[in-house]
Amino acid sequence: MKIKLFSGLSIYKKMVIIFTIIITLSAISTVLINRFLFLESYVRLEENQILEESEGIKELINRNLENLDSTCIDWAHWDDSYNFVSGLNQDFIDINFADAADTLYTLDINIMAFTDKEGNIIYSNYFNSSYDMQQDIPEEIKILAKK
Cβ neighbours of residue 33 under 8 Å, at least 6 residues apart? Predict the structure, then answer.
C-alpha cells in the first residue's frame, strides 16, 4: 500500500512546501542553538565579570576602611582630642579646623565628628563633595553616632 503524500499537487507547490518546512526547521534549530549554547555562555561570562568587579569593589572598600581606621586611631591618641571632648576646648577647633574643608580634604574624608561616651556629637564637620560645600551633618549620621 502506497501512501500518496502530496498527491494531486503540482511540483511547484510540493517544492514550496518542502522549502518552507526546511526554512522553518532551520530557523527553529538556529534559535535553539543560540539559546542553549551562546546565551548560556554569555550569562556565565557576565556572572563571572560581576563577581570579579564586586571583589574589586570589596577590596577598595576594605582599603578605605583601613585608611579611615588609621586616621581615627591617629586622632584618638592626641591629648588635644581627648581634652577637647572632655572640656570643649575651643582652641582645638580653632587650630585644627580653621579651614575645616581643607582638613577633611587632606584626610580624604567627608565627615568628622567627635562624640562623648554616650554618643552625643560634640563637634562635627561635613563637606558634601557632590555640591563642593560644607553642610550640616546628616541626621542619619547623628542617629548612627548614638548607637
Answer: none
Tell how far CA 11 is from the center of its chain. 64
Question: For the segment 55-93, what is each residue's pLDDT rounded down to a tens digit?
Answer: 999 999 998 888 888 877 777 667 777 788 887 677 888
Cell of 97: 579646623
Q: What is the predicted pLDDT for the residue at 56?
A: 92
Q: E strands, the chain, where?
A: 111-115, 121-128, 133-135
- Helix, strand or coil for residue 6? coil
Beta strand pairing status for 121-128 and 133-135?
antiparallel
Strand-strand pairing, 133-135 and 111-115: unpaired
Phi, psi of 55 (to 5 degrees): -65, -40
Q: 89 by DSSP, 3-state: which?
A: coil
Look at residues 69, 141, 138 and name the one whose alpha carbon lies nearest to residue 107: 69
Q: CA-to-CA distance for 134 and 103, rounded, in angstroms?
A: 12
Do 123 and 86 form a contact (C-beta atoms < 8 A)?
A: no
Bridge partners of 115, per DSSP, are 121
